[in-house]
Please model this.
Amino acid sequence: MSTIARRLPVQTVVVRKPGKRHYGTHIFLIVMAAVWLVPLVWSLYTALRPKEDTDKYGYFSFGGSFGFENFVQAWNQGGFSKYFLNSVLITVPTVLLTLLFASMMAFAVSRVSWKFNITLLIMFTAGNLLPPQVLAAPLFEMFKHVSLPYSVSDSGNLLNTYIAVIIVDTAFQIGFCTFVLSNYMKALPQDLTEAALVDGAGIWRQYWNIIMPLCRPALAALGTLQVIFIYNDFFWPLLFIQSGDRLPITTAINNLQGQFLSNYNLIAAGAMITLIPTLVIYLVLQRQFVAGLTLGASKG
Amino acid sequence: MSTTAEKPASHNGGPPEHGSQHGGSRAATAVPGKKRIKSRRVRRLSRRDKTVLGIMVGLPTLIQLLFVWLPTLFSIGLSFTRWNGLDVADIKQAGLDNYEFISQNYPPFWPAMQHNVLWLAFLALIATPLGLLLAVLLDQKIRGSRIYQSIFFTPVMLSLALIGIIWQLFYNRDSGLLNFLLGTAGTPQAVDWFGDSNVNIWAAMIAATWRHAGYVMILYLAGLKGVDPALREAASIDGANAVQTFFRVVFPAMRPVNIVIVVITIIESLRAFDIVYVINRGTNGLELLSALVIQNLIGEGQVIGVGSALAVVLLVISLVPIVFYLIRTFGKEKEA
Model:
């Protein structure tokens, strides 16, 4: 991208008359941007106001005080620390496993030629595009009928465990990551591994010491994307985890709606707390996230 | 980054026949360039390397087969049975009964089909074009482009579940902002946007648009950057105006991105689940196929057969965009 992006301004300046104004465009964009921000700003505004004030003045008002009491109360009353921990326990292993498996698979299909590589790649890509609900019933029943000792799982099977969520999330995301990484690896020069081969490096060393370090940008982009995807996953924990205190945050906020009853200030504060990790990642790693999204789309 | 970086990919992707274990190696010397190198590589694999490779391929493939494709086949199988989900021995043959039931005696089925179609139409006709429009406007050298992009992109980072909750606060009958802005708050005319079965599907689709348009915008921004500037230049030299240039030259040149966007739009409309589930579990005006599947699986009377039949309907519909995408993406490589 960089070469094209750098070339672009020079040429467009020549074509486009300098000083072309975009008043209409700006008005449209400002209006749209304002509309886009309204739901978020409204949630934040509601979250910052004590319930007594909104009861007294109404939600649509400017009176009363502002503060973070709702955030503190929602955090403690809702048990957010527990839910965040659950989210971490699910997200971190899932992302690491996904990237490991996907990169191994991508290496095999893109750097070594053999009979079924395209067939497998098609299978992996297709799997990622299925609606999760299609597999819900069999997966639920499979996990229910896998017996585990009670020392490992208090349900006696794979239901109600993080493992269930991690396995399925991984299986579902491997497809997308394999597709993206295999495209990335194909674009690396063949001579790289050729040279290593001449030096007597085995497959594993070619993969781990030569190709993987070169894939760092793609891995960083995909990793960021996957963290957001898994953190935002609502469905699999909903299906597999029954006890409320094991839910990750994204699934748990649905229950908080009931727990906070019609205290919208607390619900708003809870929603804003849930948003914070994504917002932090967004601010720090926006470039990686966008790169991850577009990596998958640029090949068609 | 990606578009330029991946250009060479299509060359050394290579036809599978040449790289196969047996074929090619003898004839390799006759085949020029990369192909020859490739087949030599394969021949030189030691037994140890083959084992390593087997594990590298086998492990992910096993996971994929076991947790994605096997369940998919089970779903199809279970849709022809009657089962309460308790004992595997209780599974009874049911023929097409479940399909007959959902199409004739299951009231939410046809509304759900309609809602899925409506959802798709709304995303395709409103959300996606809006995202494209934003991308085109922001692709110009416009002041503050980055800030606008960040704003439109923010909802893409959020889960649809959280989006449901945030919009609930906006749509609420008594405390939501929308009714205050409309001046109906506190009056009998106030609408409960997520609760009223006449309007809630529209309210939910607008909330989904909030996210989808930003997603489309980002993809098209990348696509627009990849369009060769010389194309635009040539068009403007030929006297085409901005609109003509876009529709006749730039838009067709973004074909790979267009295909991805078409697929994403269809798949997203079939996958729409989280938001309606958060609002009211997909009932009362918000029936969607995906939500009906889950309603039949969780809850008191588990009717696995009916749920699976619904899942198969969802599967068959989603295979259309999936196959379309796979042909577009991998068809070239197979022919090459």
